[in-house]
Automatic annotation (TrEMBL):
CDD domains: cyclophilin (cd00317). PPIases accelerate the folding of proteins. It catalyzes the cis-trans isomerization of proline imidic peptide bonds in oligopeptides. Keywords: Isomerase, Rotamase. Residues 41-182 form the PPIase cyclophilin-type domain. It catalyses: [protein]-peptidylproline (omega=180) = [protein]-peptidylproline (omega=0). GO terms for biological process: protein folding. Pfam families: Pro_isomerase. Belongs to the cyclophilin-type PPIase family. Its EC number is 5.2.1.8. This is Peptidyl-prolyl cis-trans isomerase. Residues 86-96 have a biased composition (Gly residues).
Amino acid sequence: MVPNAAAGLYGPGRKAPRRDQTTRIRAMDLENTLYMDLEHGRVVIKLRPDLAPKHVARIKELTRQGFYDGLAFHRVIEGFMAQGGDPDGNGTGGSGQNIPAEFSREPHVRGTCSMARAASPNSADSQFFICFKDSRFLDGQYTVWGQVTEGMEAVDKIKRGQGRNGEVRDPDKIVKLQVAADAAAA
């Protein structure tokens, strides 16, 4: 049997959304979605402005400037995470603008996107990491700003580093990072 709106598909007393509402909802979703193109495929990241509005705004700003395009995953530790976003490619660089911490109770699970930082909680800049597996020991200490929703298999293929620090020789790079709304408009 095929449900219909008149029979309560949207619940008692609810109507199907108007076309302009549906378009606006899709546009909001695209504005809070990133497409990260890697040599291994596309990664789709759902941004979480509800958790970290300042971080999400800054990441979108840097993304729209093309800041992340061509940057390496300079630190990649097997069974832990892949870290990128450093224009110097060695873990010491950034965009030059620190972002105040926006710690939350959101867990660091497989596919979580979180900001890297130095010892100071307010030292996050442009570097971020994507968790390969659950890393709950990071919870409440790093700002979670997104979650991989598609393409985790491409993240899993990022070249791993050597040793405990995960430094990568000839690292994989972000081919292109873009806000989905911008990609849809192009």
